[in-house]
Design goal:
Blueprint: E1 36-42, E2 45-51, H1 58-71, E3 84-89, E4 92-96, H2 102-105, E5 111-115, E6 121-122, H3 144-147, E7 149-153, H4 161-167, E8 172-175, H5 178-197, H6 221-231, E9 236-239, H7 242-257, H8 265-276, E10 280-281, E11 284-286, H9 295-305, E12 310-313, E13 317-320, H10 321-327, H11 339-344, H12 348-378, H13 388-392, H14 397-410, H15 418-421, H16 431-434, H17 436-439, H18 443-456
Parallel strand pairs: 1-5, 7-8
Antiparallel strand pairs: 1-2, 3-4, 3-5, 6-7, 9-11, 10-12, 12-13
Length: 472
């Protein structure tokens, strides 16, 4: 039997023919031992690229993948020399460079994604994580992505679950492109125009909530920003883990980088510096009002940015935020009009926690599928219970997906199994094996979670949202 390691439920190899009750062993699709086939995801499309000369660099793979995509009629603006590669292994991915030799970093049937984004590398700064919050242990199977710092551009649109979970482990740098800074400056100009022209706009020069009818004079606008942050620092309980705090900070940066807030570009740059130096504020784990806004947790995040409250960094451990920032060469942020509201108005706390829950759930589901399939093989189980036609009778999508996973893992046209053809000594398998698709169809339940979490990584739910109409 040939085992294929799965990264996610969607990455199961396709079933190329319908399985039958008397299915015979199929001839493998490839017999040339000198040809390597790599599964490539590029620009949202999945293709297979055969490689004969494995001494070439990954740039050749990118060039060939782009050409095949264009030959199929799909326009691709990606340049083969302006990309990097993500190699998937189990539930994680690892960065490999275009200059790497194919045979040194890839094997037959490996799965990679070609991403049009440059990656810069820097040496990691020394320092151990001490303090009252412990980081989870790293896997011994490390790659270049864990050995050196890398840079991810935050633009408000590109962040996904895989990158977010990787950012939470530390050792990564964030950046803001000139285009993002331009958008931030444009919407910031709208806010400054409101203030300069004396327009009265909620959240800019008024109170909040019940005090929305109270107009705040221009010389008091800075005090208003500090007051809204300090007044909402009402969280209780133990601190979030360092990993969850990194996710929360990265998510807030990403949302502000979308440039619909009207905050000062300096605020976003300041948060990026905090992330890059791993300066993480103390954020109590309890106190949010959930979907109505993570006001308290985000206020504690902003409190650290202005040099108040507690903060952690690798070089200092836990200490006063002012001292931790100074030790890392960062000065406390000086609030400007609307910066306070822009700092605390969002749902990045529940998104940071929910993203981890979804990531773990996917990992558990994949592990369960592989484990059950392995048990079925060890016990010389019957594949008839997972026949495609059997599960078409009950059109439950989750049940059909799980059965498809079993067929792909245990026996398919692409990955035939010798165990499948062995003579069985019983009529059917125990219920706990043959009915796994019926009792483990978790995919339909996980899909709504993903459809909720992924958009929340890059929204702008702030009130108000500046626009040109605000100046009329």
């Amino acid at each position: 039997m040939v085992w294929k390691e799965l990264r996610s439920f969607e990455d199961l190899p396709p079933i190329e023919t319908k399985s039958g009750l008397a299915m015979k062993r199929h001839t493998p699709l490839r017999t040339e031992t000198n040809v390597m086939c790599v599964h490539v995801k590029i620009d949202g499309h999945n293709i297979v690229v055969p490689i004969i000369n494995q001494l070439q660099s990954l740039s050749h793979l990118a060039r060939e993948a782009i050409q095949r995509l264009e030959d199929s009629g799909v326009d691709c603006d990606m340049a083969h020399d302006q990309c990097y590669f993500k190699k998937f292994h189990r539930d994680e991915f690892y960065i490999i460079k275009p200059s790497d030799i194919i045979k040194d970093v890839l094997s037959d049937d490996d799965m990679v994604e070609i991403v049009a984004r440059k990656v810069k590398r820097k040496e990691r700064s020394p320092g151990s994580e001490d303090g009252r919050v412990e980081e989870s242990e790293e896997s011994e199977d490390c790659s270049a992505s864990h050995e050196s710092e890398q840079t991810i551009a935050m633009d408000g649109s590109s962040l996904d679950l895989d990158i977010l979970m990787l950012l939470s482990k530390g050792g990564w740098q964030l950046s803001l492109s000139e285009e993002t800074m331009g958008r931030l400056a444009e919407t910031r100009g709208i806010v400054e125009g409101i203030v300069d022209k004396g327009y009265i706009k909620y959240g800019v020069n008024t109170g909040f909530g019940l005090l929305s009818r109270v107009v705040v004079e221009n010389d008091k606008l800075v005090d208003l920003q500090y007051n809204i942050v300090r007044s909402h620092c009402a969280g209780v309980g133990e601190a979030l883990s360092l990993e969850a705090t990194r996710r929360m900070l990265a998510l807030r940066i990403n949302v502000l980088a979308k440039a619909y807030s009207g905050c000062s570009p300096d605020l976003v740059e300041h948060m990026v510096r905090m992330f890059n130096k791993d300066c993480l504020p103390y954020i109590p784990a309890q106190g949010t009002v959930g979907a109505s806004g993570d006001l308290a947790p985000l206020a504690h995040l902003a409190q650290g940015a202005i040099g108040e409250g507690k903060m952690w960094s690798p070089s200092t451990g836990w200490g006063d935020a002012l001292e931790v920032l100074a030790a890392n060469g960062i000065t406390p942020y000086q609030m400007k009009a609307k910066d306070g509201l822009s700092s605390i108005n969002g749902t990045q706390f529940i998104c940071a926690v929910g993203a981890e829950a979804l990531h773990r759930a996917k990992h558990c589901l994949n592990t369960t599928l592989v484990t059950c399939s392995l048990i079925l093989d060890i016990l010389f189980g019957h594949m008839e219970a997972f026949d495609e036609r059997v599960h078409e009778i009950r059109p439950h999508s989750g049940q059909q997906r799980v059965a498809s996973a079993f067929r792909a893992l245990c026996h398919s046209a692409k990955y035939p199994s010798e165990i499948y053809e062995l003579e069985k000594h019983d009529v059917q398998d125990p219920y706990t094996l043959r009915c796994v698709p019926q009792v483990r169809p978790l995919h339909p339940q996980m899909r709504p979670s993903g459809e909720t979490i992924h958009p929340q990584m890059r929204p702008s739910g702030e009130t108000p949202t500046p626009s040109d109409a605000s100046l009329r």
